[in-house]
Amino acid sequence: MKLWAGRFQKETDTLVNDFNSSIGFDARLYRQDIAGSIAHAQMLGKQGIIEEHEAEKIVEGLKAILADIEDDKVEFSLDNEDIHMNIEALLTQRIGDAGKRLHTGRSRNDQVAVDTRLYVKQEIPTIIKAILNLEEVLVKKAKDNLDTVMPGYTHLQRAQPTTFAHYMMAYANMFKRDVTRLEDCLQRLDECPLGAGALATSTYPLDRFATAQALGFAKPTDNSMDSVSDRDYAIELLSDLSILMMHLSRFSEEIVLWCSWEFKYVDLDDAYSTGSSIMPQKKNPDVAELVRGKTGRVYGSLVTLLTMMKSLPLAYNKDMQEDKEALFDAVDTVELCLPVFAAMVDTLTVRPKNMAKAAAGGFINATDCADYLTKKGLPFREAYMIVGRLVNLCIKTGDTLDTLTLKDFRAISSLFDEDVYDALALKTCVNERKVYGGPSKDSVQTQIKLIEEFVDGHRV
After folding, report:
1. What are phi and psi of 41, to 5 degrees?
2. CA angle, corner 404, sides to 399 and 406, nearest 5?
3. How many helices (H) and strands (E) does the chain have?
4. Which pLDDT score is estimated for 390?
5. Per residue in 87-106, is it b (16+ CB within 10 Å) or e — as a string?
6. Where in the chain do CATH 1.20.200.10 domains reside?
7. H/E segment holding residue 158
8. Integer Cα distance of 326 and 304 in angstroms
């Protein structure tokens, strides 16, 4: 018999039972559900709402059920619909009438709210740890490539010289923001909805501060109706994870390009590549491509929750059961992607000569040539026009700015002198960009130090 069967004169149709059931996916919340029930039972006993010995019996029964679930000795039933009713039914079977007192002053509405918050609260630190591991990989790559000059791009066209280290720190700063966003989410969700009941608390003298403290929350939620109808924390998490995956996807796209024969800036380790079933020469960047593809999956989870919640009246509605599969899938996807992505980056081989060769073409020192003239007193817009004429000349002759003769330079402007060649050297172009945040060696070392301090501060 279902726990809510008193109101009904007919058994639930089998189709409805299967359609309504969530035990197939919310079973993973058993730890959180049992933790919430233990806190609730202990509070009921301390408040004198049920007898202390009954509360103790409930707690012992719940701990035994937890142990049996962990030992794979429990089979959940579709008839009991969800993880909450399954555990309560098991408890009542084992300890009798005392088990029926557990739900005093509680609803599945606040029960599922606390379970889901506990789940999110426990998963965020796991994701943050994985991001920090990736940050350490990026720092390592940056330290090894402080002098590895490569083209920087805009519009996927070679634009200005930078270094591979500077590139790595760009992504490191993205992932740093991802960590802080997740921390913000964790801080906002750190409120306990247990005791909110169906929507209007209870006539029993529940101590919501005690249960919040027992479950490790900073405080109870302030409004009972909002407590059971809120899924902002899940939407915020999925938004944060979508941004994180977007960063991983952008990085993946770069790696896919860089390991192609057209670029060949990096080689992926064999352990993080795959081959072709028909083309024996192929070495495919499947890890990067799958991360890029799975980004859409996480986006889909976010859109699922936003769409589900967009027109729901207060307070709880059964629609909200749809939050879990999307939430679980997004968390699982991110936790799957981060370690393998970090390992792929850690083991890839950088090809400095290929990067330097690419940097030598494409006139990426053109801005530096204009700056050279500007420093000699010419207005930048005039310098810009002169360098444009030089580039046009190079295109016609097949030269680069570096290979033009001094006569060629002076034919267009008398301000050019022998020192132009030093000014146009790519390492000069990079290391003279000493502005805070720029690609010079000193600047990148500062950036590395800041990321290292950030990671160390979060490892404490």
Report:
1. -65, -45
2. 170
3. 20, 6
4. 95
5. bbbbbbebbeebbebbbebb
6. 109-141+163-203+216-357
7. strand 157-163
8. 7
> Which of 161, 192, 236, 152 has its CA nearest to residue 424?
161
By percentage, how much of the chain surpasses pLDDT 70?
95
- Rounded CA separation 258/352 (Å): 12
Q: State if pTM tops 0.85.
A: yes
* Residue 273 near residue 284, CB atoms below 8 Å: yes
pLDDT tens per residue, range 119-142: 999 999 999 999 999 999 999 999
CATH of domain 109-141+163-203+216-357: 1.20.200.10
Q: Which residues pair with 219 in a beta bridge?
A: 191
Q: State which H helix or E strand residue 380 sits in.
A: helix 380-397
pLDDT band with cut points at 50, 70 and 90 for residue 334: very high
pLDDT at 18: 61
What are the structure tokens assigned to 370, written together?
């204009």
Structural tokens at position 411: 């034919």
Class of the domain covering 361-442:
mainly alpha
| Active site members | 155, 276
pLDDT at 149 over 90: yes
Whether 40 contacts 101, CB under 8 Å: no
For the record, the structure tokens of 234 come out as 């899940």
Domain 5-104: assigned CATH number: 1.10.275.10
Report pLDDT digits (tens) over 165-223.
999 999 999 999 999 999 999 999 999 999 999 999 999 999 999 999 999 999 999 99
Closest CA to 167 of 449, 460, 448: 448
Peptide bond connecting 315 to the previous residue in cis, omega within 30 degrees of 0: yes
Residue 46 has pLDDT above 70, yes or no: yes
Other CB atoms within 10 Å distance of the CB of residue 167: 25
* SS3 (DSSP) at 266: strand
Query: How far apart are the C-alpha atoms of 288 and 381, rounded to whole Å?
Result: 42
Q: How many residues does the chain have?
A: 460
Residue 276 banded pLDDT, cuts 50, 70, 90: confident
